[in-house]
Automatic annotation (TrEMBL):
It comes from Reichenbachiella carrageenanivorans. This is CinA-like protein. Coiled coil: none annotated. Residues 7-174 form the MoaB/Mog domain. Signal peptide: none annotated. HAMAP family: CinA_B. Belongs to the CinA family.
Length: 416
């Protein structure tokens, strides 16, 4: 089956100046993907006629569909409609149906129709009007052979309604579309290049209609497998088989699939083992507690936290020995261990986990540079510890510490 490609063209000087965040392309791309249309390219340009003409010409050479947002307002700087009329060699003419729509909107607001807004009812004579139920600027549908160009307002809530009600259904009728299926494997604790080496033979053997993408994030890498075909059931079955084949190679790094977050996976492990947990935090300042409690239903296993930022709190609240702090310092395996044991005793939980480190940008030494962090988990009769060295800014070091702590907890809970 032939794949159908689209490009999204956003128009407006305000996008290039950074005055408005472009959320339209993300939303449009997701909706097109859902119906089986692949977005090949996204382009943002200013309100310049020649740039619009050149960009549109290039888009149509590469792709089947061009979706345009922006530049349809009533003011002189909105030139998209006139430019499209010129591109398709069409005259602008009053569209009675469009005029009725504009008049109806003004009546609803109890205002008289102005001449400048009346101009919005003038459309290129050869296009198909797309009703805008949330604004005054109608959309426009152009056809050039089997290729389609659609122009929509740049206001997101106007554009989204127009897409959902009219444009997406029309595209599904206009083209015979394949299905596009994505499946995501969530990995943690391994870098992108090392992960690629682990699964290189499997990746090389993937059939042409299945593609793999590596999507690295903070301490994590998502593996996105994309399949294209005529039957969703057949594509999903084949993809599941491929995933089952690769999982044994990377099992220790995989914590879930789809949209699951590491804190969700940890929560499921705690619930399945009927365990409770509490946190003692120094360098993370409560961020680990925030991640754990961001999961709905976390009160089932999470009891509480102590942010023991000052050494006095470590001693008085968590029971860290004065001699431990004097001999080893706050950032040490020994202090982290006593913090984890102390918080577990204080809240009478099955597990206590602690973080202590130097987030930066100051406070580091030659022996303990900025980014030095110790983690500890008190569980059963044991205390497990781990040292990590982080290279980031203060905020990144805090975030990465929480991620490492969650993964450390996952690995501990998954041990036999």
């Amino acid at each position: 089956m032939k794949e159908i490609y689209a490009e999204v063209l956003t128009i407006g000087d305000e996008l290039l100046y950074g005055q408005i965040l472009d959320t339209n392309t993300k939303w449009v791309s997701q909706e097109l993907d859902d119906i089986g249309i692949k977005v090949r390219r996204k382009i943002s340009i200013g309100d310049k006629k020649q740039e619009i003409l050149e960009a549109l010409d290039e888009c149509l050479k590469r792709s089947d569909i061009v979706l345009i947002t922006g530049g349809l307002g009533p003011t002189k700087d909105d030139i998209t409609k006139k430019t499209l009329a010129e591109y398709f060699d069409m005259e602008l003419a009053l569209d009675p149906s469009a005029l009725e729509d504009v008049e109806d909107i003004f009546k609803r607001f109890g205002k008289a129709l102005t001449e400048i807004n009346r101009q919005q009812a003038f459309l290129p004579e050869g296009c198909k009007k797309i009703k805008n139920e949330r604004g005054t600027a109608p959309g426009m549908w152009f056809e050039q052979g089997r290729k389609v160009v659609v122009s929509m307002p740049g206001v997101p809530f106007e554009m989204e309604a127009m897409m959902a009600k009219t444009i997406l259904p029309k595209l599904k009728k206009h083209y015979t579309l394949p299905v596009i299926v994505h499946k995501v494997i969530k990995t943690i604790g391994i870098g992108e290049s090392w992960l690629a080496e682990e699964i290189s033979s499997w990746e090389d053997a993937l059939p042409d209609h299945l593609g793999l993408a590596y999507l690295p994030g903070k301490g994590q890498v998502r593996l996105r497998l994309t399949g294209v075909g005529e039957s969703r059931e057949e594509v999903e079955t084949e993809m599941d088989q491929q995933i089952n084949e690769v999982l044994p190679k990377i099992k220790s790094y995989v914590y879930g699939f789809g949209d699951i977050q590491i804190e969700d996976a940890v929560g499921e492990l705690l619930k399945s083992q009927s365990l409770t947990i509490s946190t003692a935090e120094s360098c993370t300042g409560g961020f680990l507690a925030h991640r754990l409690t961001s999961v709905p239903g976390s009160s089932e296993y999470y009891l509480g936290s102590v942010v023991s930022y000052h050494n006095d709190i470590k001693k008085e609240t968590l029971g860290v020995e004065e001699k431990t702090l004097e001999a080893y310092g706050a950032v040490s395996e020994e202090t982290a261990s006593e913090m984890a044991v102390g918080i577990r005793k204080k809240f009478k939980t099955d597990i206590g986990i602690s973080t202590t480190g130097i987030a930066g940008p100051d406070g580091g030494t030659e022996e303990k540079p900025v980014g030095t962090v110790w983690l500890a988990i008190s569980f059963g009769k044991n205390v497990f510890t781990r040292k990590i060295q982080l290279p980031g800014t203060r905020i990144l070091n805090i975030e990465y510490t929480a991620i490492h702590a969650l993964n450390f907890l996952r690995q501990t809970l998954e041990k036999p």
